[in-house]
Amino acid sequence: MAMMVQVQDLAKEFRTFRRREGVWGAFQNLFVREYQTVKAVDGISFDIAPGEMVGYIGPNGAGKSTTVKMLTGILVPTRGVVYANGFVPYRDRLRYTKTIGVVFGQRTQLWWDIAVIESLKLLRKIYDVSWRDFQERLEHFDQLLRLKDYLNTPVRKLSLGERMRCDLVAALLHRPKLLFLDEPTIGLDIVAKKNIREFLKEINRRDQTTVLLTTHDLSDIEELCQRIMVIDHGRLLYDGRLQAFKEQLGRWKQVKFFLKDRGDFAELESLFAGDTLQCERLDDLTARILFLRDQVSSAEVIKKVLSRLEVRDIAIEEESIEEIVKNIYQKRNPKL
After folding, report:
1. Cα–Cα distance between 94 and 317 in angstroms, integer?
2. CATH architecture of 5-247
């Protein structure tokens, strides 16, 4: 099967100079400059199949945005090979950009002072979308996102959630085969996030749109993606199934106990004093016991607690993806 995206040994380096401090330092910078090379992306390789939804995560400065800019043709790689939908992005930009969609959560591609529908009509002409296809697409988007309520509203008067819906419509108006999303749910409330996630699932299911999603909201990844790539300091740390990622690195399990009496927490702490298990107080009546899954079982923890205390309820949970990723960044987990 032909890949939608092929990346091999991709790297991007930037040459910057070190600024000296103070007035004297600024004067010296006029005549003598010390340069350094920064490796924003350092030799990464991956393939993305048609129809895949892939999460691409990493801390600030890890190289996510630089990667996306090379994949969209904005930046030229220092070295390496990139093919996306059969094009070399930076070389075939005019033809290539008609086959992709891009949404940046912090920016809009719509015109700020005109009505949303006028922006979409301009984009229809730019992408050579027929009037019939344009109307059909708008009708379909309205069913999923309820657009008609603000199609005649200037973009500057939209809420963030409304604007993000319109930006998604603008990016998908021409049926792109490949969609790049950068923080598509940033700043949105729970209802708006749910609507956008459901919309993306439907577009992926119906049109087999390939999606590369970069985000700091890891619940987006869990809702939308089965595959995850983790990047840090320009290098790819992990590329594989989300479930395998959680199983491989999620060494911790936790059991929450909902206590009957505030004084029970002291009893719980004494029960695990000197043990390898960790006892945390979440509030006056809720405690969490953390333990390594390969050293002790949930049943053993529960049995030990119930032998001494009467509790209102019990909840067994896996380590969250947020905790796993945080452990990677903090180097608390072994290198992948």
Report:
1. 49
2. 3-Layer(aba) Sandwich (3.40)
